[in-house]
Every structure is written in C-alpha cells, then in structure tokens.
Write a structure and sequence with these properties.
- The complex is a heterodimer.
- Chain A is of the alpha/beta class.
- Chain A folds into two domains: about 30 residues, no CATH class; about 120 residues, Rossmann fold (3-Layer(aba) Sandwich), CATH 3.40.50.12280.
- Chain A has six helices and six strands.
- In chain A, the strands form two sheets. A four-stranded parallel β-sheet of chain A has the order 1-2-3-4.
- In chain A, helix 2 packs antiparallel against helix 6.
- By secondary structure, chain B is mainly alpha-helical.
- Chain B has a domain of about 55 residues.
- The longest helix of chain B has 28 residues.
- Chain B is flat, with a radius of gyration of 27 Å.
- The relative contact order of chain B is 0.05.
- The chains are: A alpha/beta, B mainly alpha.
- Chains A and B meet through helix 4 of A and loops of B.
C-alpha cells in the first residue's frame, strides 16, 4: 500500500526514503525509454533534430535509438504512413517486445494530415495499432516532441502493477498480436482494426 | 583474514560482480515470475525491417577461407608455445634453445610454403 504523501515528505526531511515496488518499477521504466529508429517523412527530420545537441532528447532517457524493434520500447511514428508502408509498420510494432509504446508524431500519423485526400495515404496509424500519445503539428517542433515524451513518462508513472488499469504487458489477456493488413485490390484489407479503432458512426 | 593485503580487493571485486549481476538477476526474476509471457508468431518472426523474410539465412560456406583458418591456427599455437619460452629464457640451457629454434624453423617452413603458394597476396 502506498504511503501518504505528507508522511513521505516528513520522513524525507529526516533522511528516511520510503517507496513501493510499483514506483521503483515505473521509475526505472519511464527514465529509460529507448525509441526505435523509425522515421518516415518530414517529422523524422524534427525527430532527428530533437536528438541532436540543441534539444537533446537523451537527457530524458532516450539515450540511443535502437535499430532493432526487439531492443526498443517506443516507436515514434514520424511522418505520413502510406498504405504501402502500413503493413510493415504494424509488423514492426508486433515485433517489438512488450512493454511497448507508440507516439504518433505530426498530423499525418494522427489522421492523414495535409495529404488526407491522397489515394495511398493511411488516414492515421491508430487505425491499426494502439497509440499512447498524439502530437499535433506539421511538423511539431522539437519542444513538442519533448513534451510528448514527458507526457508518456507521466503516463508510465501512473500505471499500476495489478488490477484493472495495469498495462498491456502485464495483462495476459490483453491483445499482443495486432493483425497485419494485406494489400487488397484497391485498399488495405482490413481497412482498420476494430479492436483498436472504433469506426466512427455518422449521425445525420 | 581481514589483515590479508588482498582482502579489500576481494571485497571490492565481489561488490563489482554483484553490482553488475544484481539488476540482471532482478530482471530475470521479474520476467520469470511476474511478467506474463505473450509470444505470438509475428513477434517471434525473423526481423527484416517489417517485411516477411523468404528463404533460409544459411548460405553455403566459402571453403576458400580454410587457408586463413589453418594459418591462423598454426601461428596461434606457435605463439602459445613461445610465450612460456620467452618467460623462462634466461634460465634455460643450450639444448632447450636449440630445440625451440628447430620448432620455430618448422613453423617458418610452413609459412614459406604458404607464401610460395601465393596465399599471402590479395586476390
């Protein structure tokens, strides 16, 4: 059970440090989120700028961008997802080891963005994989990506270890495999993953 | 035992070993006991940048590389024999030096053979 916040501060003043396993586990996880090297389009340039000297993302724990999905915790979908690339994105997401998180960076990854009317543009990657943080922008500034990273860290911090709200990787019934869409005659089949993206109902 | 000059080194060594192994042990324990295993065929598939990989990754071994393996092995074993000889050099008699010289000459003969065969030039 968690200790009352005031009591914690009082004990801290006396030099006694109290914590729970859940806090330690989440602290370790949130401060070492390693992204995967996954840049698709212009947002990728902003992502690269965020990792460089001026807006250093490594100070938040994203020390290295791993090339392999097996070693990464976070997938930053930066750029327009075309329908040709969508099966590969979903397959890479499936190949990441849990716990895994997704940040949809930029308007294209959220909903298709300025190229929404394109015949080959997937209108948002959250049709197929569950997205944790969305960042609006075209492209979002590096500070916005850092803000998204901090939001993700706050989200990880608030995840309990047991009970209803436990994260996907601790829940054996939670979906682990997200079906990979195939290239159909005119469109991807299926057009979206109904477990992840409820098809919006048009109310006239 | 605490007065032994190496005692503090042993303690520090064990601490360093523990510092490295403890997080690994805790992670292994967590993965075994608490974290549910969720394997699925796509997750365990071969990584090929998001594509489905076709065919086998086992290509035929180029047997032309055997020469490099042999030469490395010979000279590696020679180095292993030369090292204790070099350490004990000043305490040995003439017979030991002569036998070592014959050993080295036999290996040089092997090197001369490889040189004459043209293995040591590129292409």
């Amino acid at each position: 059970m968690a200790v009352d916040q005031q009591l914690k501060i009082e004990l801290g003043k006396q030099g006694v440090f109290v914590t729970t396993i859940e806090e330690l586990y989440n602290w370790g996880r949130k401060n070492s989120v390693w992204p995967m090297q996954f840049g698709l389009a212009c947002c990728a340039i902003e992502m690269i700028a965020t990792t460089m000297a001026r807006y250093d993302l490594a100070r938040f724990g994203a020390e290295v961008f791993r090339p392999s999905p097996r070693q990464a915790d976070l997938m930053i979908i930066s750029g327009t997802v075309t329908k040709k690339m969508a099966p590969q994105v979903v397959r890479l997401y499936n190949q990441m080891a849990e716990p895994r998180y997704v940040i949809a960076m930029g308007a294209c990854a959220i909903s298709g963005g300025p190229f929404k009317q394109g015949y080959n543009v997937l209108k948002g990657i959250d049709r197929y994989i569950p997205v944790d943080v969305h960042i609006p922008g075209c492209p979002p500034r590096p500070e916005a990506l850092i803000q998204a990273f901090m939001t993700l860290q706050k989200k990880i911090d608030g995840q309990p270890l047991t009970g209803e709200k436990r994260p996907r990787h601790l829940n054996p019934e939670a979906q682990g495999e997200f079906p990979v869409p195939e290239q159909g005659a005119h469109d991807l089949e299926p057009t979206s993953n109904s477990g992840v993206w409820p098809i919006p109902v048009i109310i006239r | 035992m605490a007065s032994n000059p190496y005692f503090s080194l042993v303690v520090l060594f064990l601490a360093a070993l523990g510092f490295g192994l403890a997080p690994l042990g805790m992670a292994w324990l967590w993965a075994r006991v608490f974290s549910p295993a969720k394997p699925n065929p796509i997750k365990n598939a071969i990584y090929e940048c998001g594509l489905v990989s076709k065919g086998d990754a086992w290509v035929q071994f180029r047997s032309a590389y055997y020469l490099y393996a042999i030469i490395f092995l010979i000279f590696d074993v020679e180095a292993v024999f030369l090292l204790p000889f070099a350490v004990a050099f000043t305490g040995l008699g003439v017979a030991a030096c002569v036998s070592m010289l014959i050993f080295v000459l036999m290996l040089i003969e092997g090197l001369a053979w490889a040189w004459a065969k043209g293995v040591l030039t590129w292409a």
